[in-house]
Design brief:
By secondary structure, chain A is mostly helical. The first copy, chain A, is 79% helix and 0% strand. Chains A, B: Keywords: DNA-binding.
């Protein structure tokens, strides 16, 4: 995409994130998103097929960036323990700093149709695979027990992280999410050894 | 409620569970539920205000029974370790044996409005509190480390269990859920000590 086009595409996604976080997916008409982005309604259709397409693109771009960030950070770690801590830090820090994204991923995402959820599941998959890879690395490094059920454990870890974020949001963000990293990682690391 | 009335109330809830599991909450018109229950549309309104009310009642009755089952089973255990294993066993066994309930709790529940989710959250709360109580008992019994963050850890455990059930459903129930109990409990117990 040429840079002018890319800029508009980005502006629409950023506007959609804000509008969906404030009004819910069902209450976010294309016209509202266009108004927030400062473009004509028709312009949206130059970039996206429909509202579902905006939501999927939003996940691809924003969660895609998060997964890239995870992958980058994990590269700089030496052990699986450090990698797992990095993952937890980024997961909690990024969503704490980007409440709109947190709201859309934890609440709106879950309200979408099964079809949409399958599409979004594909975006989340590389993250689950990264956790799997870290667990494999940990077994290889003889840090984690060799009978660890990796396919099951990656779900236990992902589900645990996910629930902490959702609960923090629903409870009105009354405490710091990033302050939960140490105790969360401690629980995981003991569980893995 | 008189027993005839109670019977009809139960029949409508059972029909609603089946219809919602097959058609999704949004695709489950009152008329479909009435047909499945073998009653007139108007009869539904003698028992429920609207479709939302049916969904909330369904959760109160079915999840309520599950929580009662959890509480009963935990009474027969001597240690927090045994209680946690019981919770995990019941969670996985009951949802494996009642796929409609699993589908409605894991998929349809998440698609409902924030208002509905708050109501449903109240039904789930006693379950989260039971996990909290087991963790407290474990610390008292000196089985779990005394610096355990109980409020955080109950979320880690609930989220982990929840994710395993959702993933099992979405992947098309290709494996046994109850076969995951041992490895799941092992991860938790190591994490707690």
């Amino acid at each position: 995409m040429a840079s002018r086009k890319l800029e508009k595409y980005e502006m629409i996604l950023e506007a959609a994130l804000k509008v969906i976080a404030e009004n819910g997916f069902h209450g976010s008409q294309i016209s509202k998103i266009a108004k927030e982005a400062g473009v004509a309604d028709g312009t949206i259709y130059l970039y996206f097929k429909n509202k579902e397409d905006i939501l999927i693109s939003l996940f691809q771009e924003r969660l895609g960036s998060l997964v890239a960030l995870f992958n980058e950070s994990v590269k700089d770690t030496n052990t699986a323990d450090e990698a797992l801590r990095k993952v937890c830090e980024i997961h909690f820090n990024e969503l704490e700093q980007n409440v709109n994204l947190a709201y859309v991923t934890q609440i709106e995402l879950r309200q979408s149709s099964l079809e949409l959820r399958v599409a979004i599941g594909l975006v989340v998959k590389p993250y689950i695979q990264l956790i799997e890879h870290i667990l494999e690395q940990g077994v290889e490094q003889q840090l984690y027990r060799k009978d660890l059920d990796i396919k099951l454990t990656r779900l236990l870890i992902f589900g645990a992280l996910d629930e902490v974020v959702t609960s923090w949001l629903i409870s009105g963000r009354k405490y710091s999410l990033s302050a939960q990293v140490d105790k969360t990682v401690e629980f995981f690391l003991k569980g893995l050894k």
